[in-house]
Amino acid sequence: MASSGPTGKRLTVLSGPSGVGKSTVVAELRRSHPEVWLSVSVTTRAPRPGETHGVEYFFVGDGEFDRMIAAGDLLEWAEFAGNRYGTPRVPVERKLAGGVPTLLEIDLQGARQVRETMPEALLVFLAPPSWEELESRLRGRGTEPEDVIARRLAAGRVELAAEKEFDLSLVNTAVSEVCGRLIALMR
Question: 12-186 belongs to which homologous superfamily?
Answer without folding.
Answer: P-loop containing nucleotide triphosphate hydrolases (3.40.50.300)
